[in-house]
């Protein structure tokens, strides 16, 4: 029984030595842009993560680049140093441990690459990959234009866009990635390239949903559109009103003439300490129309509170940061059915009600539209790899979130989330309501969102990876996130089980 441990010990020693050499070389080339344990810049990055799981990892050093050239140099050095792995952090909003940080390797904190530049005709915004969406909206609002970006302003531009990206404006203009006209990207050999419809068009398409499997994006050039103030209504309901709330939600998302100004989020919140459920609805209308008729049915449901206002995009996105907690995401997509949504609540209540780990846990189960009109915009920039077709009809996405303080409960919370998701998906599949698609920005580490894009898109992603990264640097040396090689193995496992 000692043999595997000996291998692990040996591997750890080699890995640590490689990382130390790598950090030394980075420091020689990039000077004070490299920080080490206990230095202020290092501590600043470590304290900026959204989840405790990410903040708990300790890289050997952290690089704080200020130019794309810095990133290019760093990737070249890391790739040339055996035993040195890296992670890439934008705003650090992914909850999974290792998605944007690393133990013992090099974390590249992209926050310094946050420049926003609007073209003279205001049609394209160039934005550094380390920017947060709030910075983008604050920059654009005075020009009365906007871009398809994150709804929470604290989310980073890079992670959201490379995962597809749902925006308040998505029904009108598509996924965030559908509005990228050019990616500036550092490849595995350190080359700085531009990927667009005319140059590296295959890489351009792969980056639209393919996450961090192909290169390190340093700048996104985003198509803008005219935009002024918007309307937002917030309704809070007693859980006893779940029937009419879910009926109103289903009627809105099922409409064959889905209103492209609608951005709707219906959330069921559960606190394991109080064993209490609450329904919170965020009904955004991306025009300055107070009380738009499309939300009348939802607004008519008796509520605990009901507020509406006209506001700017930046003001709406300016959310208060949460205290550092442990977080978990998991997701699935379904065809519309109010009856099935009620079944979903019963499943959630039956499983979650008796689960109360030390320190408690808060669950947030959110539902949001995935209308076919949103999917129709992909073709305008050469398509994406998400595998969704507009002729498949309207759907909705479910996000299961959990947040808790006591890290000793991490495994237990994950196990419960797996159980909940498994039961809901099994029931949906039996009723013909389950969609294969898993939104990668909401997916749990145990899910396989890249494979959910379909066999054709998945094979395309693997071909592009082999072409631009023949040594599989971003598959093996950038281990965080969802990797094509790992999901290939998962698919093989599923195939073997079926046979």
TrEMBL record:
Keyword Transmembrane helix listed: no
Domain FAD-binding PCMH-type: 55-227
Superkingdom, taxonomy of origin: Eukaryota
Gene3D superfamilies: 3.30.465.10
PROSITE patterns: FAD_PCMH, OX2_COVAL_FAD
Keyword hit for Endoplasmic reticulum: no
Pfam families, per the entry: FAD_binding_4
Keywords assigned: FAD, Flavoprotein, Oxidoreductase, Signal
Stretch forming the signal peptide: 1-16
One MF term in the entry's GO annotations: oxidoreductase activity
InterPro entries xrefs: FAD-bd_PCMH, FAD-bd_PCMH-like_sf, FAD-bd_PCMH_sub2, FAD-linked_Oxidoreductase, Oxid_FAD_bind_N, Oxy_OxRdtase_FAD_BS
Family, as annotated: Belongs to the oxygen-dependent FAD-linked oxidoreductase family.
Protein's name according to its UniProt entry: FAD-binding domain-containing protein
Protein species of origin: Staphylotrichum tortipilum
């Amino acid at each position: 029984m000692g043999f595997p441990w000996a291998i692990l010990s040996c591997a750890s020693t080699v890995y640590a030595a490689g990382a130390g050499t790598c950090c030394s070389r980075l420091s020689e080339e990039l000077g004070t842009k490299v920080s080490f344990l206990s230095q202020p810049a290092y501590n600043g990055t470590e304290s900026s993560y959204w989840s405790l799981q990410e903040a708990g990892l300790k890289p050997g050093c952290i690089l704080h680049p200020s130019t794309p050239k810095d990133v290019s140099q760093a990737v070249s050095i890391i790739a040339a140093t055996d035993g040195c792995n890296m992670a890439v952090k934008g705003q650090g909003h992914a909850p999974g441990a290792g998605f944007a940080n690393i133990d013992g390797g090099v974390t590249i904190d992209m926050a310094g690459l946050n420049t926003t530049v609007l073209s003279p005709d205001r049609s394209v915004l160039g934005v550094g990959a380390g920017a947060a969406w709030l910075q983008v909206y604050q920059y654009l609002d005075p020009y009365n234009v906007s871009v398809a970006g994150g709804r929470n302003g604290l989310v980073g531009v890079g992670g959201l866009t490379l995962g597809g990206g749902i925006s308040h404006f998505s029904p009108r203009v598509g996924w965030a990635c559908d509005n990228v006209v050019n990616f500036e990207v550092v490849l595995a050999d350190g080359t700085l390239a531009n990927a667009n419809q005319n140059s590296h068009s295959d890489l351009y398409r792969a980056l639209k949903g393919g996450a961090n499997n192909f290169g390190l994006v340093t700048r996104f050039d985003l198509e803008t559109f005219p935009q002024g103030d918007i309307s937002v209504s917030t309704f809070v309901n007693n859980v006893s009103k779940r029937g009419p709330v879910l009926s109103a939600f289903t009627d809105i998302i099922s409409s064959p003439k889905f209103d492209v100004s609608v951005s709707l989020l219906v959330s069921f919140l559960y606190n394991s300490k109080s064993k209490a459920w609450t329904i919170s609805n965020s009904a955004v209308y991306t025009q300055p129309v107070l009380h738009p008729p499309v939300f009348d049915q939802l607004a008519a449901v008796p509520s605990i509170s009901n507020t509406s206002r006209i506001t700017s995009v930046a003001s709406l996105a300016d959310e208060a940061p949460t205290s550092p907690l442990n977080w978990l995401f998991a997701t699935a997509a379904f065809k519309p059915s109010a009856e099935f949504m009620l079944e979903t609540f019963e499943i959630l209540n039956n499983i979650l009600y008796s689960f109360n780990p030390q320190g408690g846990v808060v669950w947030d189960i959110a539902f949001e539209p995935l209308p076919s009109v949103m999917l129709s915009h992909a073709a305008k920039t050469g398509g994406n790899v998400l595998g969704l077709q507009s002729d498949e009809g309207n759907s909705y996405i479910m996000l299961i979130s959990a947040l808790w303080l006591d890290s000793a409960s991490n495994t237990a919370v994950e196990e419960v989330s797996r159980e909940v998701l498994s039961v809901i998906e099994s029931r949906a599949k039996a009723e013909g309501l389950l969609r294969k698609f898993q939104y990668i920005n909401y997916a749990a580490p145990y899910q396989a969102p890249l494979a959910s894009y379909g066999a054709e898109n998945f094979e395309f992603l693997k071909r592009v990876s082999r072409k631009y990264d023949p040594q599989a640097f971003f598959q093996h040396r950038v281990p965080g996130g969802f990797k094509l090689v790992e999901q290939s193995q998962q698919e093989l496992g599923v195939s073997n089980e079926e046979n």
